[in-house]
Amino acid sequence: MNFFNVCVFVSVFLVSTILSFMLVKYKDIICILDEPNARSYHTVVIPRSGGVGIFIAFILGVLLLDIAHDYWFFLPLFIIFALGLYDDINPLSSKKKLLITFLSSILLFYLGFDIDKYGCFVGYDIILPTWISCLFFGIACAGFINSINLIDGLDGLASLVSLVILCAFAYLGFRWHDDFLFGVALVLMSAILGFLIFNWHPAKIFMGDSGSLTLGFIIVILSVYSIKQSYITAVSVLLLAAIPILDTLIVMVRRIVNKQNPFKADQTHMHHIVLKQQNRHVVQTVMLIGIWQILFTYIGLGFKVRDDSYILVLFILCFVFFYFSLTPKKIRKN
């Protein structure tokens, strides 16, 4: 890392901080606001335009570093950001957001961020035909992008979890001397840190869908890039980004088992339940979930096996443990 790179990261942090401050100060003019409702933990109107500052600072940083060998990935990224921003202004249904994120993921696939090998199980490489791989890729990516959106329910939670995941990719970029992976991860981390100053409890601003969907999509780009470079396997992403993935899977399975609409919003996400267990102490809850993600990410980076079956089994065991630990007894009885 040279002096110019350090200056860029500091500049990205400052730009994100300044933009977040401006978005808070002029919230009544910008009018991208989060009104308190039955599922909210805040009681006053708070701007949810933080994603704008993160996005602008990130794009600026990537352009200054000039590390992208191909800028075509900006196209689906802009679509995702625009989708999130539109949803922050005029709320869309979850099905429409899933559809657009799915199509954007398919576009990313055909722009070169594709995967053909999905792991090695009991000695056999799982290589799918292109059309099946594309379909699975779109579903998996859309699911993960929206999982970051779903955990964005407490002050600083999505920011902290994303920072931990990005630390893993920054480490991989440093270890393999990969300027793109290292630079993009650190630029996004710098943008998030500038925003987190105003997003930490009690939050003065939320990132909104423009922020959470954008974070999820960039993490997808870094994950796919790392897999294509053979730094990690596709299955290891289940551990590197375990918390949002586990939370989404648990909620969906729980709703389906109880014959409920899997897309209907409720208060049964991981952070809702842990918050109740922690006597509604927001910072304590966020820090606890952040520590869980640190442990998962550490294991994911250090789990070096030739057979991905071990990682998959470990993830399934974690899913079962968290499912029963975080599912209220009343729901389990039903």
UniProtKB/TrEMBL annotation:
Transmembrane segments: 6-24, 45-65, 71-86, 98-115, 121-145, 157-174, 180-198, 205-225, 231-253, 282-303, 309-326
GO cellular component: plasma membrane
GO biological process, one term: lipopolysaccharide biosynthetic process
Cofactor: Mg(2+)
Localisation: Cell membrane
Statement: the UniProt record of this protein carries the keyword Kinase: no
Matches recorded under InterPro entries: Glycosyl_transferase_4 (IPR000715), PNAcMuramoyl-5peptid_Trfase_CS (IPR018480)
Pfam families per the UniProt record, alphabetical: Glycos_transf_4
EC id: 2.7.8.33
Binding site residues for Mg(2+): N149, D209
A GO MF term: metal ion binding
Keywords assigned: Cell membrane, Magnesium, Membrane, Metal-binding, Transferase, Transmembrane, Transmembrane helix
Enzyme class: transferase
Topology versus the membrane: Multi-pass membrane protein
Name of this protein: Undecaprenyl-phosphate N-acetylglucosaminyl 1-phosphate transferase
Source organism of this protein record: Sulfurospirillum diekertiae
